[in-house]
């Protein structure tokens, strides 16, 4: 531990202010990156989440100070027991409800918000560390969370583009056009693993559509190549890759 920070680990007005400021700053750093990408949870959400978690620990610390100080005679009389860890535990449990609200089941088997939910959970843990005066953990945690959410995003995208499995949603003009689409896929050396027809006939502005799970060949494993080959077909109305 850094000995120079020992005065700020004591329970005082200055340490409380510094801990809350550290929580707000760390949460703001994480939230800024998410807000730039227009994710469901932005700067204010992450700051409030982190500060709220810090507050639970500070409340526990305050209650412990009072029970062992001014309230000591009452505690001795009634035999009260205190477990400060319950506050942090309840903060993490409550985070589950907030995080689950950011996870959305979108159309065509897509699920969005998982990264936001896990980011909020990690931010709560970071806030608990700030409230406990574990400043080293706050700094390291903020850096690791930020690098994971922002720095690894291009790496993850590149990895997904290199894998041979791909899931596509295709809309086409007529139900019989789907067989031609399947022939185009297999003509590129790919195999169809699963097909789920979402709409059989045209209804107003909605065309027949299907979700196609494909495993491409090693020789022709380009996602953009497969998308381009199908998109160029005259019968195809729209196509995009379904990313989970």
Keyphrases for this structure?
single chain; 2 domains; two-stranded antiparallel sheet; alpha+beta; four-stranded antiparallel β-sheet; 244 residues; Alpha-Beta Plaits
Structure in a nutshell:
With 244 residues, this protein is α+β, with helices and mostly antiparallel strands.
Mind sketching the topology for me?
Layout: H1 6-9, H2 13-36, H3 43-67, H4 72-78, H5 85-100, E1 104-105, E2 111-112, H6 114-131, H7 135-151, H8 153-162, E3 165-172, H9 177-187, E4 191-199, E5 209-215, H10 223-231, E6 236-241
Antiparallel strand pairs: 1-2, 3-5, 3-6, 4-5
Helix pairs in contact: 2-3, 2-6, 2-7, 3-5, 3-6, 5-6, 6-7
Kindly describe this structure.
- The chain has 244 residues and is an alpha+beta fold.
- Helix content is 58%, strand content 14%.
- The chain folds into 2 domains: 149 residues, no CATH class; 82 residues, 2-Layer Sandwich (Alpha-Beta Plaits), CATH 3.30.70.
- The strands form 2 sheets. A 4-stranded antiparallel sheet has the order 4-5-3-6, with helices on one face. Strands 1-2 form a two-stranded antiparallel ribbon.
- Helix 2 packs antiparallel against helix 6 and helix 5 runs antiparallel to helix 6.
- The longest helix has 25 residues.
- The two termini are 41 Å apart.
Determine the strand fraction and express it as a percent band: 5-15%
Helix-strand pattern: HHHHHEEHHHEHEEHE
Question: If helices are DSSP runs of H or I spanning 4 or more residues, what is the number of helices?
Answer: 10
How many structural domains? 2
Strand order of the largest sheet: 4-5-3-6
Poorly predicted ranges: none
> What structural class should be given to the helix and strand makeup?
alpha+beta
* Helix content estimate: 55-70%
Whole-number average pLDDT? 82
Gross geometry: elongated
Largest sheet: 4 strands, antiparallel
Query: Radius of gyration, Cα only, in angstroms?
Result: 26 Å
């Amino acid at each position: 531990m850094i000995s120079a920070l020992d005065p700020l680990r004591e329970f005082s007005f200055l340490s409380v202010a510094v801990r809350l400021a550290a929580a707000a700053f760390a949460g703001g750093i994480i939230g800024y990156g998410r807000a730039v990408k227009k994710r469901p949870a932005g700067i204010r959400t992450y700051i409030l989440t982190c500060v709220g978690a810090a507050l639970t620990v500070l409340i526990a610390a305050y209650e412990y100070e009072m029970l062992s100080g001014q309230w000591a005679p009452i505690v001795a009389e009634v035999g009260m027991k205190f477990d400060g860890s319950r506050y942090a535990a309840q903060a993490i449990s409550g985070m589950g409800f907030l995080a689950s609200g950011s996870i959305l089941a979108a159309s065509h088997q897509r699920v969005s918000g998982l990264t936001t939910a896990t980011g909020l959970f990690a931010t709560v843990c970071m806030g608990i560390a700030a409230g406990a005066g574990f400043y080293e953990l706050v700094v390291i945690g903020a850096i690791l969370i930020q690098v994971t959410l922002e720095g690894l995003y291009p790496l993850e995208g590149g990895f997904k583009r290199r894998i041979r499995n791909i899931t596509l949603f295709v809309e086409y003009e007529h139900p019989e056009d789907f067989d031609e689409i399947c022939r185009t896929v297999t003509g590129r050396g790919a195999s169809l693993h699963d097909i789920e027809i979402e709409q059989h006939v045209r209804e107003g502005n909605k065309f027949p559509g299907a979700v196609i799970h494909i495993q491409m060949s090693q020789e022709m494993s380009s996602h953009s190549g497969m998308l381009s080959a199908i998109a160029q077909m005259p019968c195809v109305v729209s196509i995009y890759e379904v990313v989970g």
